[in-house]
Amino acid sequence: MLNLAQDIEVLARFGRALADPIRCRLLLALRSAPAYPSDLADALDISRTRLSNHLACLRDCGLVVAVPEGRRNRYELADPRLGHALDDLRSAVVAVAEDGTCPDAAERGCC
């Protein structure tokens, strides 16, 4: 069983990963199916260098893994439960604000 400090670190790591829109898009793309970096770069319309940096961040956070396939690496979520967590989190946030906005976000400096 994790202790409170470990729980906080795990959640903070997940939060850091989700703080960037490109990493969110990557996680959502990988939720659907594993993919190769070149395909992900094309799908997200970003450079391969930029994609590589974001994939490295997600690997360091323990959210994605690289699976060697010959001379290539295929990327996938580190655990299938992450896909469910992303779906649950998105659903919960949308349920809180039906219109999808964050009330008073500018005043609080969030969202």
From TrEMBL:
Coiled coil: none annotated. SMART domains: HTH_ARSR. It comes from the Bacteria. Transmembrane segments: none annotated. Residues 4-100 form the HTH arsR-type domain. InterPro entries: ArsR-like_HTH (IPR011991), HTH_ArsR_DNA-bd_dom (IPR001845), HTH_Metal-responsive_Reg (IPR052543), WH-like_DNA-bd_sf (IPR036388), WH_DNA-bd_sf (IPR036390). CDD domains: HTH_ARSR. PANTHER family: HTH-TYPE TRANSCRIPTIONAL REGULATOR CMTR, TRANSCRIPTIONAL REGULATOR-RELATED. This is Metalloregulator ArsR/SmtB family transcription factor.
